[in-house]
Every structure is written in C-alpha cells, then in structure tokens.
Amino acid sequence: GHGGGTAERQGPPAPERVLFPPTFSVSEIKNKQRRHFMFLRWKQQQRKEKLAAKKKLRKEREALGDKAPPKAIPKTIENQRVYDETTVDPDDEEVAFDEATDEFAPYFNRQTVPKILITTSDRPRGRTVRFCEQLATVIPNSHVYYRRGLALKRIIPQCIARDFTDLIVINEDRKIPNGLVLSHLPDGPTAHFRMSSVRLRKEIKRKGKEPTEHVPEVILNNFTTRLGHSVGRMFASLFPHDPQFIGRQVATFHNQRDYIFFRFHRYIFKSEKKVGIQELGPRFTLKLRSLQKGTFDSKFGEYEWIHKRREMDTSRRKFHL
Fold first, then answer.
1. Is 119 helix (H, G, I), strand (E, B) or coil?
2. Which among 114, 174, 195, 288 is least buried, having the fewest CB atoms inside 10 angstroms?
3. 147/163 Cα distance (integer angstroms)
4. How far apart are CA 261 and CA 287, in angstroms?
C-alpha cells in the first residue's frame, strides 16, 4: 500500500562518523590516489603497532633479566624445509663408495688437473663476451673460445683430445647471458643451469682491483642432498686442488632454496678478529634445470634429473639440492 514505504525508511539515525566494516579492505577503494593514501596510512599504523609490541616485549625481557625466556628462532622457508630422504649423511658408506668411483674421483684423487674450455652460443655479443673473459680470470687454467658456427658435438671430441677436463657453455638471449651448461669430460655428467642476475665487474659497487693469478679457495655452502652433492662436486672440480692462500681469493657457490649464488671475493685479516672482504666479481645466480649422464647430447642424452616444475614444486619448502 501507500504507507509501506515510510515505515521502512524509519530506522535508527545514521551515525555521524562512518566506521569501516570489519572486513573492509583498502583495495576496495576505487580512487587510485585515495587508495594509495589510505594504504600508506594503514602501513604506518601497522608499523606503529609492531614497534609498540617490540618495545613492550623488550621492557618485559629487561624486567625479567636473566629469567627471560630464550629468543625464538624466526621461521624461514629455509629452516622449515620439507625433509628430503636423499640428504647426505657424511658417514654414509654408500655415498663414500659413490664418491670414490664417480666421474670426479680422478680429480679428487689428484690424478687429473682441471683444464677448462669456456665457450659461448654461436656468435656471442658484447656482454656475454665480457662475462666469459671475467669468468676465465676466476677459474684458473681456463681458455675462452668464441664459437663461429661449430656444433658442440664437434667441439667435445676436440676438447677431449686436448686434455680439457670440463666444458662450460654460456648461452645468451637478446645479448644477455641466460644459461650455463657444464659438461665434465670425457664421460660427463652434464648440467644445464638457467642463469640470471649477472653482474659484470664494473657493475659491482665498491669492487676490488682485478683478481690475481692465484688459485682461489672454493666454498660450497648448503649442497645437502645426493643431487646437491653431485652438483657441488662438479663445481669443486673446476678449480685446482691446492688453493694459494697468499692470493686470499675465494670463490663461493652458495645454495639457497635451490638457487646457487656465485660470488668472488678477496679477503684480508685486519686483526685477529676483523676480516675485510672486497667483492671482485663477476657474480651470477644459477638454477639447475637438468643433470644428464655422459657429455652434452640433446637428442639421446640419458637424464639423471630434470626439473619438472608442476610435479616437483608441490610445496614452497621443498628443495632438491
């Protein structure tokens, strides 16, 4: 009827100040500037609350003095890692046997001396060329060869004939180095890595002077599984066995969440407690895509491991190296 509308309109008077509903999200604000402003205000508020909570906690700890509970270790993806059954126990006999008989054993038994050929994809461009030159100053006894239309299949027998122990191929895409193939000669294995975050020497802040000819030390961090172990051994065997500590140069392969970060530093002991380090460069990051038995063979290669993202990366805390 006619009177129906008026009854519905009468309700409690609207409050003066509009309160955000409890489920309100800043992203619902349509105006971009307003949204940005409100977001910043919200962030500020969060920061204030966090600081206040920290302060309160610190005061409580101080009041308790020695009775304060030990500080909690923060949770990280790394320390919450899903257990991998192939994690290597240093005393494992099976692993010891594998290492005594694998393709790198002659290197670790000092029967072979590393000799490395660094080459590129066909007709490399400037940045890749410079990267190869700098890599050759990091790895002793390495030789750079720029490819002009020669297939890798043809290069490998020549390498073996000339006593090269390893072949490194730097691939590029749109003039940027984006891949690294590492093949151990004469029998493999061959690892394919995706390469990213390449920084050449001149792009590193506060870099040291050019590296010297000394044999660097090699540090391998965090290669814990069987696969990680194999990859670590591959990197180790690129460098001569006896580091020259007078050179004080150190090459680090640091594995974190299956990304392998490479850094090259020089260090100096300023006193018994203080060590000064200078980054020499280059630096880059690798991610293993596959490990294949034997030398480079894209057609008939037998793969020991291939990274299949959809099947393998079921959890953000699952790592393979």
1. strand
2. 174
3. 19
4. 9
